[in-house]
Amino acid sequence: MNKNIRWVYILIASLIVAALLSPFASSFPDGLERVSQDLGIEEKGVNEFFTTPFSDYRVSYIKNDFFSTAISGIIGTITVFALSYGLGHIIARKMEQ
Q: Cα–Cα distance between 69 and 76 in angstroms, integer?
C-alpha cells in the first residue's frame, strides 16, 4: 500500500472518530479552565474586542450543539493532522540532507 494512501485512510478514520465522539465529550471544565476558575482569574481573561470561533469547543455560528461540537472536532483534527504532517515532512527533509 502506498504511504500517502495510508495517511489518507488514517485521516478519514480520525475524522470519523472526531465527528462521532466529540459531541459526547464531558461538559465539565478541562484542567486549565478549572485552575483559572479556582484562582478566580477566569473573568480577567475575557476580552471584549476579540472573540474565538471555537468557544467551549463549539463553532459559534452553528446553533445545533451536536453538529457544532462535531464540526469543531473535525476542524481540530484536520488542524492537528496538517501541522503534524507538515512538521514531520520538514524534519524528514532536514534529516535527509
A: 10
Are the CB atoms for 15 and 74 separated by under 8 Å? yes
> What's the distance, CA 28 to chain centroid?
17
- Which amino acid belongs to residue 24? F
pLDDT in tens, 31-82: 777 888 888 887 766 666 666 667 777 887 888 888 888 898 899 899 999 9
Whole-number Å distance between alpha carbons of 62 and 64: 6
Placement of cell 480520525 in the chain: 14
Cα 68 from Cα 15, distance rounded (Å): 14
